[in-house]
Amino acid sequence: MSFSPKYFQENEFAIKDKKLRYYLSPTLLENNFKHGFFTKTSSEINLSLLSNRLKLNSKNCVLNQIHSNQIVVGSKTLEKERVEADGIVSDKQNQNLWIYTADCMPILFADKKKRLVAAIHCGRKGLENKIIKKLIKIFYDKGCSKEDMLVAIGPSISKKNYLIDNKTLQNFHKKAASKESISFSDSMEISLKSKESVKLQKNDLIPLNLKKYAHIELLKENISNTNIDISNLCTYESNHNFHSWRRTKTFLRQWNFISS
Q: In Å, how far from its chain's centre is CA 73?
C-alpha cells in the first residue's frame, strides 16, 4: 500500500486574544469525532480553557508520558496522581483524551460503530515497544472490527529531519523486527530477516521514517489503508507552528486530543 501523507484541515480560534491553531484529520472529521492536533500556541493554555472553548466534555484525561508501551483507560487518569503511560483508551462517554508531543507522533484511534476512541504518544521507542500493536489488540478485544477502525497520525518529525546513528538503527531494527522487509528510509532497504549490519562509516547518520514505519505497522494489523490519515506536516521544519525537541531541545509541547 502506498504511503501518502496528506493535508489536514486547518482551523483556529482565540482564547484571551491569543489565536490557537489546530489541525483536523479528514477521516475523523467525516465520521464526526471531536479531535484536534494543536500547534505550539496551545502549550501554555490550561486544558480546561481549551475544553470549554471547544465545547468539549469536562473529563480531561492526561498522562505523564514516558516513551513506553503502557496504555491505560481514561478513568485511571482521573485519579489524583498522573499515571505514567503513553496511551489512553476511553472506557466511558464524555472523556477527552490528551497527548502532548514535540516531534513524536500523536496517533488517534476511533471505532466508527462502537465510538471507542484512543490516543497514543509514539516515537522511536514506542515503535520498538510495539505500542501500536498493543493498542489495536485492546480494540479487537473489545469487539471492534478492522473495517470500522480509523487512525490519524498527526504532525510529527519527517524522515529527512530524524537522523540516527548505525548503532541506534540496528537496535531499532532488532526490537521492531517483523517477518517482512520494511523500508526504513527511501535511501536504504533493510531486510528484517537478515542479521547483517549495514555497512556505514562510523559517523554516518541515517534518516528514519517514523510515520512510514507506523503506517506499515497499522497495515500489518489489518487496518485498511483507506482508514488511515497521515499528516504531511513536519514539526522540525515549522518553527512557527510547532515545538520540536530535535530542533531546539525545548521542553515545551503541543496538545492533541480525541473525545469519546
A: 17
Q: Name the β-bridge partners of 100.
A: 255
Cβ atoms 104, 84 nearer than 8 A: no
Written as nine digits, the cell of 12 is: 483556529
CA gap 34, 114 in Å, rounded: 15
**Which tens digit of pLDDT belongs to each residue from 193-219?**
333 445 555 568 889 999 999 999 999
* Distance (Å, whole) CA 208 – CA 198: 14
Grid cell of 14 as nine digits = 482565540
Return the pLDDT at 224. 93
Please give the mean pLDDT across all residues of the chain: 88
Cβ burial, residue 108 (10 Å; 0-12/13-18/19+): buried
* pLDDT for 67: 96
Going along the chain, which residue ranges are E strands?
9-15, 18-24, 35-38, 59-61, 71-73, 87-89, 95-101, 105-111, 117-122, 149-153, 163-165, 182-185, 188-190, 205-207, 228-230, 254-259
Predicted confidence at residue 58, as pLDDT, reads 75
